[in-house]
Design brief:
The protein is built from 7 helices and 38 strands. With about 750 residues, it is mostly beta strands. The protein has 2 domains: about 100 residues, Carboxypeptidase-like, regulatory domain (Immunoglobulin-like), CATH 2.60.40; about 500 residues, Beta Barrel (Maltoporin, Chain A). It has a 22-stranded antiparallel beta barrel. The chain has a 5-stranded mixed sheet with strand order 8-13-14-11-12. Strands 3-2-5-6 form a 4-stranded antiparallel sheet, with no helix packed on it. The longest helix has 14 residues.
């Protein structure tokens, strides 16, 4: 902690540097015409601008040093170049047209490079694109990313699964800090809303070198909405209607940036009824959510800082069986009432040839779960239920009932998790071919129980890690290497005090072959310390209908993964093949022992060595001269086995996705698009001893949209449909599978976004 305080004091020391600028032009390689509204961005400084109507740009107040400049515009290849500032060079940039989508800067890896320059393969998806495909929630949307699935409880609760690994094995980052929200539970969702989110990045494989414990399986990195560019402002309002759940989601935001100060604010609300299948509505999958995001930033020549805050409140029904068919949006018992606060601070200091980055976060998670048998007055509650039935379609009276119900109920389970975390990185001056970062990360976490039930005890967790990482540039090859040490201490009140230590490393290389093939080979180790539930559980977990027994003698999960990725890219054809083999020692999982306590089956946490292997393969074809036509296909597979050759639980089924989409230009509209997609999920028969197998199914979806000028402002409209054939199916990762409850049927959604 003293080290962190010294660093914070160091931030306040002014660093004297000259103010620099870069300027230039961007033109089309064939026509030599200027490109208007092209983006020029310096990712390390998070500073950018756009070209004017003559294709010219000018960026001022830049610190000295080596910085990457990225230029991009839809329909052209992305340009990147490292500049030494100050410079007298005029940047005359020539961009070549391309039907391939422009590249994005990858933020989740430390050197902030384009994907084509990255040694690690990282998936990147814009939230707007996921919404256009009809995603109801953020957890639902990420399942459109290759290699990513979700363990779902209805529509509202979803946990990310990366190549077969989930729960505490997948780390989630938001606003630049790790999200801690009791993610150990099967029915504990992300607790994040997609409003005010720019994009999602997925690191598939061990990322403990970058993020420490709990990144053994990968990282889901949520990039927040960017601030407005200097001397500009922007506002928009968005509304989406979902036909299946009779639900809606709406958000509104405003942002403005001056020379040095900038701020943004966004609020959203959503409500959904029980989702519908071809035969019935699934009782108590209804949910409500309110979300608020804000941020303020300051940027001078050599110093940049920003502070962000996110409050998310959700009330989520927990489905148990098919019951009364209703369109109410008020969750009935049992339900979760969760409030999540995320405070984050990110500061950068730029020296002559190096830089310092300090990220601080505080997450306050307040989780309550209400159950019927904890009602103070059962008769009074029955009267209230009758009252709700009589006024089912009256929204105001339902709201009054909802407030009254909260007054007479006490949470059976009530936990508060308070987490402070820090992430400090120092980027050393570039030395020859070496870019190097050293850093430290840590966490202080306190869990406190307030309800009569207790899933995990009152406890304090402390993490500390130090690491170093280098990116080495050769003529045709880039190499990345790093090492890290971590310590996690868990102290249970009136219980044990345990330390978990781990050394980890990573080595990766990227090379170009024949100018059109990129090959990446990454070798990395990772670890995960057992969580409180695995160490200490002894009681009924109502959300999963299990009596769970932990084991305080559990040891670290330790893994080693080999990942090979090949990518072929020509002007009109792209092809990729990713393969991995992941060996996990001391894999922790729940196993039934065949006994019952209070009529509830008993499950115990046990350990066994395991392995997972598989990958993704796909292609993207956009034929000349029909550059507006895109044909895409991808296949993903993963197999998980224990050392004794039995299969691991919760491994997603293999799937094949085929998509045809078009992108058109028009004089009366911009960014017109349409798509039709067929996702074929194969039967999953490779299941653990206590799992049910799953049948195969095909889901058809389609959508179209575009941007139009309305009252001199942009209106983006889209309509999309998922499961258009209203197929009755059960996803293998659905927690409602043992009850034979179907996943969502046909859903038609309409989305409107208006820029003010």
């Amino acid at each position: 902690m003293k080290t962190i305080l010294y660093l914070l004091l160091f931030v306040s020391i002014p660093v004297i540097q000259a103010q620099n600028s870069i300027h230039g032009s961007i033109i089309d390689s064939q026509t030599k015409e200027p490109l208007v509204f092209a983006n020029i961005y310096l990712p390390q400084l998070e500073k950018g601008t756009i070209t004017d109507d003559q294709g010219l740009f000018n960026l001022t107040n830049l610190p000295s040093g080596n910085y990457k400049v990225v230029c991009s515009i839809i329909g052209y290849e992305t340009f990147s170049k490292t500049l030494t500032i100050p410079t007298t060079e005029t940047l005359n940039i020539v961009l070549s047209s391309s039907a391939i989508e422009m590249e994005e800067i990858i933020i989740s890896t430390p050197f902030h490079k384009l994907q084509s320059e990255n040694v690690m393969k990282v998936e990147h998806e814009k939230i707007a694109d996921l919404k256009a495909k009809g995603a109801v929630t953020l957890a639902d949307g990420i399942t459109n990313i290759a290699g990513v699935e979700s363990i779902s409880t209805g529509v509202s609760i979803g946990k990310p699964v990366i190549r077969g690994l989930s729960s505490n094995r997948v780390l989630v980052y938001t606003q630049g800090v790790r999200l801690e929200n009791q993610q150990f539970g099967d029915e504990h969702g992300l607790g994040l809303n997609d409003s005010g989110v720019e994009s999602v990045e997925v690191i598939k494989g061990p990322a403990s070198l970058l993020y420490g414990s709990d990144a053994l399986g990968g990282v889901l990195y949520i990039n927040p909405e960017k601030f407005a560019q200097q001397h500009s402002n922007a506002a928009n309002i968005e509304a989406t209607y979902f036909g299946n759940t009779l639900g809606y989601s709406a958000n509104m935001g405003y942002k403005e940036s001056a020379e040095k100060l900038k701020f943004l604010i966004r609020g959203s609300v959503s409500e959904h009824s029980d989702y519908n299948t071809a035969d019935y509505r699934v009782t108590n999958t209804r949910f409500k959510e309110q979300d608020f995001k804000s941020g303020i930033g300051y940027q001078s020549t050599q110093f940049k800082t920003e502070f962000r805050y996110n409050m998310n409140h959700s009330k989520l029904g927990i489905p148990e069986a098919i019951g009364e068919q209703t369109k109410s949006k008020n969750p009935e018992l049992p339900y979760q009432d969760i409030t999540n606060h995320v405070f984050s601070s990110k500061s950068n200091i730029y020296f002559e040839k190096s830089s310092l980055e300090i990220n601080l976060g505080y997450i306050y998670n307040d989780r309550k779960e209400f159950e019927e048998h904890h009602d103070h007055d059962e008769h009074e509650h029955e009267d209230e239920d009758d009252h709700e039935d009589d006024h089912e379609d009256d929204h105001e009276e339902e709201h009054e009932h909802d407030e009254h119900e909260n007054e007479v109920l006490e949470a059976a389970l009530h936990m508060k998790l308070k987490t402070f975390n820090y992430d400090v990185k120092y980027q050393l001056p570039v030395y020859g071919k070496f870019e190097t970062i050293v850093g430290t990360q840590g966490m202080h976490q306190v869990n406190t129980n307030y309800g009569e039930e207790q899933l995990i005890p009152n406890a304090t967790t402390n993490d500390f890690g130090i690491f170093a990482m280098s990116h080495i540039h050769f003529e045709n090859t880039d190499v990345q290497i790093g090492a890290r040490f971590d310590n996690r201490n868990i102290q249970v009140l009136d219980g044990f005090n345990k330390d978990f230590n781990s050394f980890n490393g990573a080595l990766g290389a990227k090379t170009k072959m024949f100018k059109i093939i990129t090959a990446r080979l990454n070798l990395a180790s990772g670890f995960r310390a057992p969580n409180l539930a695995e160490l200490t559980s002894y009681g009924t977990h109502e959300g999963t209908n299990r009596f769970e027994i932990g084991d305080e003698n559990l040891t670290n999960e330790q893994n080693f993964q080999t990942d090979l990725a090949l990518e072929f890219k020509s002007e009109h054809v792209e092809f990729f093949a990713n393969g991995f083999y992941n060996l996990v020692n001391n894999y922790i999982y729940l196993q039934p022992d065949g006994t019952f306590i209070d009529s509830t089956p008993v499950y115990s946490y046990v350990q066994e060595d395991a392995s997972l292997y598989g990958g993704e393969i796909g292609f993207h074809f956009h034929p000349h001269p029909l550059d507006w036509l895109h044909v895409e296909s991808s296949f993903e597979t993963v197999t998980g086995k224990q050392k004794n050759e039995t299969y691991l639980p919760l491994i997603p089924a293999n799937s094949l996705t085929n998509t045809i989409r078009v992108e058109l230009e028009s004089k009366w509209a911009d960014k017109l698009y349409g798509f039709i997609r067929l996702k074929s999920t194969f039967a999953q028969n490779n299941v653990s001893e206590f799992e049910l197998a799953s049948d195969s199914y095909n889901l058809l979806s389609a959508g179209l949209g575009g941007t139009f000028s309305v009252f001199d402002n942009d209106l983006t409209a889209s309509i999309s449909g998922s499961n258009l054939t209203n197929k009755k199916y059960i996803n293998h990762l659905s927690r409602l599978k043992p009850e034979g409850i179907y996943n969502m049927g046909r859903n038609i959604s309409l989305r409107l976004t208006y820029s003010l």
